[in-house]
Amino acid sequence: MRRESTRCERCKPNSTPRYYLVAMQVMLRFTRHILGMPIYWQPWIALLFLTNMAAVFFLPRAEASVVLAGLFVGALLQMGLFARFGFVRLLGLGHFHWLVMIAWLVTRLDSIRGEGLFYNWVVAVVVVCGLSLVIDVIDVARYLRGEREPTIVLDA
Predict the structure, then answer these.
(1) Is the bond preceding 43 in cis, omega lying within 30 degrees of 0?
(2) Strands (E), 1-155
(3) Alpha carbon of 102 to those of 46, 89, 95: distances in Å?
(4) Per-residue confidence of the chain (156 residues) as pLDDT tens digits?
(5) φ, ψ of residue 26 in degrees (nearest 5)
(6) Domain locations in the chain?
(7) Contact 91, 78 (CB under 8 A)
């Protein structure tokens, strides 16, 4: 006797939801734009990403969890901004939540002093994300003053 499938139409194989495909296309386009940035920005982007991703080595520490959550939130914000406006200076808004994260991490420094590598990593996150915020504030201000053209334009 043959058994009827209990899967709904949305859950059948090869029926990937449209929103998933659109999100993947946005992420791929965003990555292509990142890779299309001038070569002098590439080391900075790598440093920013790797400094934040190093949090995985310090889990389950609260500081590491907050940094990873901040990275995830930033990625979501930037993907949304990119999908709506393109690769413009407004993308810096995707890091503004780091203001709270950095302030909290600074308050943690006294309690983790003497923890060697972990302490050094938290300081690195504060410095690198802080410098990124300076760049982001300048970029967003320039966008608000009228510099709204895409900063990276790729051939179709």
Answers:
(1) no
(2) none
(3) 19, 22, 11
(4) 555 545 555 555 555 667 778 888 999 999 999 999 999 999 999 999 999 999 999 999 999 999 999 999 999 999 999 999 999 999 999 999 999 999 999 999 999 999 999 999 999 999 999 999 999 999 999 999 999 999 988 876
(5) -65, -45
(6) 9-144
(7) yes
Q: Considering the entire predicted model, what is its pTM? A: 0.83
Structure tokens belonging to residue 146: 């009228």
* Residues 139, 142: Cα–Cα separation, whole Å: 5
Name the token pair of 152: 């990276």
Which residues, at least 6 apart from 32, have a Cβ–Cβ distance to it below 8 Å? Answer: 154
Question: Is 37 exposed, middle or buried, given 0-12, 13-18 or 19+ CB atoms closer than 10 A?
Answer: middle
Interior/surface letters 123-136, b for 16+ CB within 10 angstroms, e for the rest: eebbebbeebbeeb
Give the Cα separation of 114 and 43 in Å (integer): 29
Cβ-in-10-Å burial (0-12, 13-18, 19+) of 95 comes to buried
Residue type at 62 in one-letter notation: A
Residue 85: C-alpha distances to residues 116, 139, 150 (Å): 42, 14, 9
